[in-house]
Amino acid sequence: MALHNQQEKGRNIAPHIFSGSIMMIGVCITVIALFRALKTGTETLADNILGADTLIFILTTLISYASLRSDNNKRLERVADALFFTGMLTMVVVGLMILYSTY
After folding, report:
1. Distance from C-alpha of 96 to C-alpha of 48, rounded to nearest angstrom
2. CA-to-CA distance for 78 and 69, rounded, in angstroms?
3. Dist. CA 99–CA 101, nearest whole Å
4. How far apart are CA 46 and CA 43, in angstroms?
């Protein structure tokens, strides 16, 4: 019974990854726009990292969508999950940069 519950837990995460990564694309773009507005057009390291993070979340969205559309989706789902986790860790790094930056 416990093994069955663990297998069920790992199933069907692609819809959650898909919707979460779409939301994170919006968050990244919003924060980049706020940085640009507050810094009067100068680029910061956080801008560049968030730009790369936006691409990570776009790839995550595309791969999770492909996982939803395919019959054998476990491999794609794992790739999307790993990319989503990488994108979230990157957001943590940017958050710490914002927290400890001096203006």
Report:
1. 15
2. 15
3. 6
4. 8
Query: How far from 90 is each of 12, 27, 38, CA to CA, in Å?
Result: 24, 13, 21
Per-residue pLDDT for 4 more than 70? no
- Identity (one letter) of the amino acid at 41? G
**Distance separating alpha carbons of residues 28 and 91, to the nearest angstrom:** 8
What pTM does this model have?
0.82
- Please say whether the dihedral angle defined by the alpha carbons of residues 43, 47, 48 and 54, taken in this order, is positive or negative: negative
**C-alpha distance across the termini of the chain, in Å:** 55
Taking 60 as the threshold, does the pLDDT of residue 1 lie above it?
no
Six token digits for residue 22: 């779409």
Token pair belonging to 63: 């791969």
Assigned token pair, 34: 């706020």
